[in-house]
Amino acid sequence: MRKVLVLHGPNLNLLGTREPGVYGKWTLADINEDLVRTGATLGIQVGTFQSNHEGEIVERIQGAHGEGYGAIVINPAAYTHSSVAIRDALAAAGLPFVEVHISNIHAREPFREKSLISDLASGIVAGFGPSGYRLALIGAHDILKSFERGSGEEEI
Ligand code: DQA
Q1: Of the listed 8, 79, 101, 133, which one is catalytic?
Q2: Which residue minimizes the CA distance to atom 6 of ligand 1?
Q3: Which of 15, 83, 102 to mutate to test the pocket of ligand 1 (most atoms within 8 A of CB)?
Q4: Pocket-forming residues, ligand 1, beta carbon under 6 Å
Q5: Ligand 1 mutation pick, 14, 81, 101, max ligand atoms within 8 A of CB
Q6: Within 10 Å of residue 3's Cβ, how many Cβ atoms?
């Protein structure tokens, strides 16, 4: 079964109460449940992880391949704009990943416009609110299918 790891960065544990005008009213649990449900309809096993600590996110990225994940969906939150460590971990992991942001980072403060991971991403979703994660998961699914087609496996 295809497996996708969804990683959430700092302060996303506060979703639901954190600046709802910017990030919406869904809690992180709502988002994760939606992803697991959507994954089930796509035939994807979804793993989820949130941390406020950069090193923990790096370690999950490092372990992803060994845990059987074929792709990553990641919202590094504030680390998007600052973390060379997360960028380097994603580059080293060699797994395709989709970058997701709940808000449109290009329509906010100038410091949010720069992402340290976008040039490595297979795709980017931003500004669709919490359901952007679902779009990112669908994108990751399509990427996995196209990889399998490339390797001669049959598409489901
Ligand atoms: C965010 C945007 C970041 O700039 C911010 O630091 C976050 C969340 C988003 O999902 O819109 O924490 O990644």
Answers
A1: 101
A2: 78
A3: 102
A4: 11, 75, 77-78, 80, 101-103, 105, 112
A5: 101
A6: 16
Q: What is the Cα–Cα distance from 138 to 122, expressed in whole angstroms?
A: 12
User: CA nearest 68: which of 92, 46, 41?
Assistant: 46
Q: Report d(CA 106, CA 150) in Å as an integer.
A: 34
Catalytic status, residue 23:
yes
Token pair in block for residue 65? 């391949």
Place of tokens 């060699």: 94
Nearest to 38 by CA among 144, 139, 153, 154: 139
Closest residue by Cα to residue 77 from 68, 86, 66, 67: 86
pLDDT digits (tens, 9 = 90+) for 52-94: 999 999 999 999 999 999 999 999 999 999 999 999 999 999 9
The predicted model scores a pTM of: 0.95
Tell me if residue 101 is catalytic. Answer: yes
| Residue burial 9-28, b: 16+ Cβ < 10 Å; e: rest | bbebbebbeeeeeebbebbb
